[in-house]
Amino acid sequence: MTTPSPPRLNHVAITLDPAVLDEHGRAEILDFYGEVFGWTEGDNTGESGNPLILYTGAFAQFVYLLPGDPYVVAPPLDHFGLQVDTLEAMHEIVERAEARRAVDDRVRIIPIASRTTPGSTHDYTLTSAYVGFLLPLMIELQYLTRHERTPRP
């Protein structure tokens, strides 16, 4: 008998100001998150309230944006996280976001930074950056590396 895996995140649902999800806002969100993250619009057939569903490209993972009142208002650093496979992927995403910020000051970016946390047998380096646009939550990109400790004499 196999042990089932623990539950894993499959979506984030955010209620937005209906004005943000009007026809123009939907187009801006799709354009930005499509260009910067590669997300695509999901089919909302059968969903009530005309949500905007953004497929992330990973199986069964999506961002569900629903117009409503009250809507989410969050402090600037509230976010959800995505893990990237390589540092290069993180740099590419941030570079695309920076290009968008150059022409749209609504794009928010917290630059790439790293910190290392020592562990008992390994050290772990977390490299992260944050990107936001029109949504109340930013997206934190994370890349984790594990370093074996050199045995001390």
Q: Could you tell me the radius of gyration in angstroms?
A: 18 Å
Category by helix and strand content? alpha/beta
What proportion of the residues is helical, as a percent range? 10-25%
Main sheet overview: 4 strands, mixed
Mean pLDDT: 94
Give the end-to-end Cα distance, rounded to a whole number of Å: 44 Å
Low-confidence stretches: none
The backbone outline, from C-alpha atoms, is globular
Tell me the series of helices and strands, N- to C-terminal: EHEEEEHEEE
Number of strands: 8
Strand content: 35-45%
Spatial order of strands in the largest sheet: 1-4-3-2
- Helix count? 2
What would your notes on this structure say?
This protein has 153 residues and is of the alpha/beta class. Helices cover 20% and strands 37% of the residues. It contains 2 helices and 8 strands. The chain has helices at residues 23-37, 87-101, and strands spanning 11-16, 40-41, 52-55, 62-67, 79-83, 108-118, 122-132, 138-148. Strands 1-4-3-2 form a 4-stranded mixed sheet, covered by helices on one side. A 4-stranded mixed sheet has the order 5-8-7-6, with helices on one face. A hairpin with a 6-residue loop joins β3 (52-55) and β4. α1 (23-37) packs antiparallel against α2. The chain is globular, with a radius of gyration of 18 Å. The relative contact order is 0.19. The mean pLDDT is 94.
In short:
By secondary structure, the protein is of the alpha/beta class. It has 2 helices and 8 strands; from the N terminus they run E-H-E-E-E-E-H-E-E-E. Helix 1 runs antiparallel to helix 2.
